[in-house]
Structures are given as C-alpha cells and as structure tokens.
C-alpha cells in the first residue's frame, strides 16, 4: 500500500467529523458551513456513504438492504469512497475549498474493522487504496455518552440496521473512535459532545482555526469570488469575525437532520 501524501499537497482543507449516531455531527457541520458562508469561504458539505449519485444507491443497499457480508460491506463503503473522493473531494481541495465530511475513513475502521470481524488495519488500507491515500487534515471526533446520543435521536423515525445493534455496540464504537484518536493525535481533535450545542461549536471553531494555521492552506473565496485565493490571516480574521457575530446573536435554533 502506498503512503498517504503530505496533508499540504492541496491548497484546501479537508475536515472530517466522526462519532456515533446522535453525537451532533450534522448539527456542528451546519454551524461551520454557515460560518464559512458568512466569511465568504469556498466550501462543500459531503456525507458518507451517499455523497454522490452512485453513493446514494450504495447507501440504500447498505442501510436497508438486509444482511450484507462483512467483506461485501467493506468493499461497498470503499467503492462509494473511491468515487466520492475522486469526483467531489479532490477537485474541491485542489481549488482551495474547505471540505466538510460527515464521516470518513475512521467510521469505516471503527464500525467495520472493530465492531465486526475484519481487521481495522485491513479496512484502513482498503480505504487508503480507494482514495489514493487521502487522509483528512483535521478530524473532529465528537465524543459523547452513547445513551445521551440515543435519547437525542429517538423520535427520528424508523431505525436503520446500524442503529438497531444496541448498547454494547455503541459502547464498543465509542472506545474504537477514542483509540483511533489516540493513535493519530496530530490529526484528531476530540471534543466533548455532551454539552450544549454552542459550547461544542466553540471547540470545533477553535480546532478549525488551529488547523488552518498549522497547514498553511491557501483557501479560496466562495460565491461570486470563487477561485480567488484568500490569505491565511484574511481567512482567520473573516472566520473568527463570523464566529463572534454568531455568538453575539445568541443560541441558534437546534438543527434537525
Ligand atoms: N450538543 C447538543 N445538545 C443537545 N442536543 C443536540 C446537540 N447536538 C445535536 N443535538 C440534537 O441531537 C440530535 C442529533 O444530532 P445530529 O447533529 O443529527 O447528530 P449526528 O449527525 O451525529 O447523528 C438532533 O436532534 C440535534 O438537534
Ligand atoms: Mg448526522
């Protein structure tokens, strides 16, 4: 397997959000996307599986299609990822956009590698092969009590297959994510998700600013100015200003996914 290229190989910034169901990934991604819009920074939102048309079909097969053999499941996730990274994520990173991914390779490793019987390293290697070695520049692990997250999501409607697998699975999953975070402290930031939305968001914002400084990315303007590059300090200033305006406006509405 080839080694991943250095994170600075592209001008944009690749941020993934990880954690079990209900920890607040979608909520935090939407807050961050709103701030990037307010700061006029080019960005895209993407989810796995299902970030492309092909991915939507794969997602349907995976989540509602009955039993799927573990290796078939791993390959389906990897197929979705290969297509999604090649057609959406890499082009965005190359033009200097921020990519906000709702789950990425760590979910595969944690869900399929640890909680099922495939080796975590094999699942990781498969994913890196599929993506030609693309790792996020920053991974935000929203870590929280699975019972609390479960209570947040009840009332969402029928549970899908992964959601039904119970408390033991959720506890094991949480441990797996934490183990992954410990193994790569330079990539991960672990955020305590058992707090009000705005407190979690403050930590997420801080992690993003730190990652932008660390990677020295060359982000691009969004909207009408798409393609025009922003300096590092100009980004930080516009982004932090948007964050301050947001806190001054008081707690936002709770976001539903
Ligand atoms: N920090 C929080 N405190 C209380 N409720 C939250 C918090 N973050 C998210 N929620 C609510 O919990 C539910 C699940 O959040 P969501 O962002 O969809 O989680 P995920 O995408 O990780 O499954 C939503 O109804 C959301 O409004
Ligand atoms: Mg979600």
From TrEMBL:
Its EC number is 2.7.4.9. One of its GO terms (biological process) is dUDP biosynthetic process. Keywords: ATP-binding, Kinase, Nucleotide biosynthesis, Nucleotide-binding, Transferase. Pfam families: Thymidylate_kin. GO terms for cellular component: cytosol. Residues 17-203 form the Thymidylate kinase-like domain. The keyword ATP-binding applies. ATP binds at residues 19-26. HAMAP family: Thymidylate_kinase. Phosphorylation of dTMP to form dTDP in both de novo and salvage pathways of dTTP synthesis. NCBIfam families: DTMP_kinase. This is Thymidylate kinase. It comes from Actinomyces oris. The lineage of its organism: Bacteria, Bacillati, Actinomycetota, Actinomycetes, Actinomycetales. The gene is tmk.
């Amino acid at each position: 397997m080839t080694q991943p290229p250095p994170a600075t190989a592209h001008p944009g910034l690749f941020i993934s959000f990880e954690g079990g169901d209900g920890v607040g990934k979608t909520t935090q991604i939407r807050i961050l996307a709103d701030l990037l819009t307010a700061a006029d920074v080019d960005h895209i939102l993407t989810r796995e599986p299902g970030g492309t048309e092909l991915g939507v079909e794969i997602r349907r097969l995976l989540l509602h299609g009955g039993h799927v053999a573990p290796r078939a499941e791993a390959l389906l996730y990897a197929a979705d990822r290969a297509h999604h990274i090649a057609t959406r994520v890499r082009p965005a990173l190359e033009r200097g956009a921020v990519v906000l991914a709702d789950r990425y390779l760590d979910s595969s490793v944690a869900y399929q590698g640890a909680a099922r019987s495939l080796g975590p390293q094999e699942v990781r290697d498969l994913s890196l092969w599929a993506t030609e070695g693309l790792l996020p520049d920053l991974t935000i692990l929203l870590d929280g009590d699975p019972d609390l997250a479960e209570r947040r999501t009840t009332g969402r409607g029928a549970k899908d297959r992964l959601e039904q697998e119970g408390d033991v699975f959720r506890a094991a999953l949480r441990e797996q994510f934490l183990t992954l975070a410990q193994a790569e402290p330079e990539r991960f930031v672990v955020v305590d998700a058992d707090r009000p939305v705005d407190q979690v968001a403050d930590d997420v914002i801080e992690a993003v600013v730190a990652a932008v400084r660390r990677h020295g990315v060359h982000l691009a303007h969004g909207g009408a100015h798409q393609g025009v590059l922003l300096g590092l300090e100009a980004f930080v200033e516009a982004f932090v200003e948007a964050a301050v305006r947001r806190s001054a406006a008081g707690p936002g509405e709770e976001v539903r996914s």
